[in-house]
Design brief:
By secondary structure, this protein is an alpha/beta fold. About 30% of the residues lie in helices and about 10% in strands. Strands 3-2-1-4-8-7 form a six-stranded mixed beta sheet. The protein is globular, with a radius of gyration of 18 Å.
C-alpha cells in the first residue's frame, strides 16, 4: 500500500501570553527512515504563534500530516451546545473558531483573553484567582476536571488524564492553548484540511491537520502515564526506538516541549495509515463537526 503522507509534523503548542513562546516546538520527519528533527523559526529565536501560522500557510512540505497538541473544539455533546443557555452559542466548530477570532480580534499574538473575559462567556470557564464560573460544571455530578468532549473520555480510557478545555488553571490545563489554537485554525480555513471537522474521510492528497495528545505517543513508546515527559536525550532515543524510529543522537538535558514534538512526529509516521485511528466507533458526523476528535484516541 502506498503511504498516504510523505511528511509528518508535530507541533507542541502554547497558550501563554507574549509575542514569543518558549513552549512551542515543531518537529518533522519524512516517510523515509530518518530521525525526527526540530524546526527552528526563521530568526532562530523562539517560535511565535503567528510564525507557526505562516509556516502552515507557506512553508508546509507536500502531503504533510500535521499534529497539533491542543483541543480543536469545546465540549458540545454533554449539553447540546458549547455554551448551554446562551442564545448566541455557535452551531459547530468552525463557527466557534470564527466567534473566538472575532471577539479576540484586538488581542495580540493570537491571544484569547478577551474571549474568556467576555461577560457572557466567562461563567463557563475556570479562571485564575479562584474564579470558577457557575456554568463550568453542567451539574453537581459533573467531572471535577470539568466538561469533557467525547474524545476526552476516550483519551481517559487509553490511560491519559485529560482536562476540560474550559479549565484555564493549573500546569495540566490545555484551555488557553486550545483557544489560541482555534484562532489559528479559523485563519487557516480552506487552506489545510482539518480532520475530522472538515470531514471524517481525509482527501486523497494534500496536507491534513489533526489534534494530537502527546501522552498517547509517550504511552505507545512504553512510557508510564505518570512519567510521560522526557527531558533527556538518551531517554528520548530509547522511546523513539520503541516506535521504530532511528535515534536523534541528542544527548544531555532537553526541554519536554521539544521531546514531545520529536516523539510525536515519529508516532504520527508509524500510525498515519492505521485505518482504525481514522474511524473511531464513537466519531459520528455530529461529533466530528462540533467537537472534533483526537487522532489516536479510540
Amino acid at each position: 500500500m502506498t503511504p498516504r503522507f510523505a511528511n509528518f509534523l508535530a507541533i507542541d503548542w502554547s497558550g501563554a501570553v507574549g509575542p514569543r513562546q518558549p513552549g512551542i516546538a515543531l518537529a518533522q520527519c519524512t516517510i523515509e527512515e530518518d530521525a525526527p528533527r526540530l524546526l527552528t523559526p526563521p530568526d532562530h529565536r523562539h517560535w511565535s504563534r503567528e510564525m507557526v501560522l505562516r509556516h502552515l500557510r507557506h512553508d508546509l512540505s507536500a502531503d504533510t500530516l500535521v499534529g497539533m497538541d491542543l483541543g480543536i473544539s469545546l465540549p458540545f455533546a454533554d449539553g447540546g451546545a458549547f455554551f448551554p443557555g446562551w442564545e448566541r452559542s455557535p452551531a459547530d466548530a468552525p463557527a466557534l473558531w470564527a466567534l473566538i477570532d472575532t471577539i479576540c480580534s484586538d488581542d495580540p499574538n493570537l491571544g484569547a483573553g478577551s474571549f474568556v473575559d467576555h461577560p457572557d462567556l466567562s461563567p463557563y470557564f475556570r479562571r485564575h484567582g479562584g474564579r470558577e464560573g457557575d456554568r463550568f460544571h453542567l451539574s453537581a455530578t459533573a467531572h471535577r476536571r470539568g466538561r469533557f468532549r467525547v474524545t476526552e473520555t476516550a483519551q481517559e480510557r487509553a490511560g491519559c488524564k485529560p482536562y476540560s478545555n474550559f479549565n484555564l488553571v493549573g500546569a495540566a490545563q490545555v484551555g488557553k492553548s486550545s483557544l489560541t489554537g482555534m484562532r489559528l485554525l479559523h485563519q487557516l480555513r480552506s487552506q489545510v484540511f482539518v480532520w475530522p471537522v472538515d470531514g471524517r474521510d481525509i482527501p486523497a492528497n494534500g496536507s491534513v491537520v489533526v489534534e494530537i495528545y502527546t501522552a498517547i505517543a509517550a504511552l505507545a513508546a512504553s512510557r508510564r502515564a505518570g512519567r510521560s515527559k522526557i527531558r533527556d536525550g538518551a531517554d528520548l532515543d530509547a522511546a523513539l526506538v520503541q516506535l521504530g524510529s532511528p535515534p536523534t543522537g541528542l544527548s544531555g538535558p532537553l526541554d519536554d516541549h521539544s521531546t514531545d514534538a520529536l516523539l510525536t512526529a515519529a508516532w504520527l509516521r508509524r500510525h498515519a495509515d492505521d485505518k482504525a485511528l481514522w474511524h473511531p466507533p464513537e466519531l459520528t458526523e455530529k461529533i466530528a463537526l462540533t467537537e472534533g476528535w483526537t487522532f489516536g484516541a479510540a
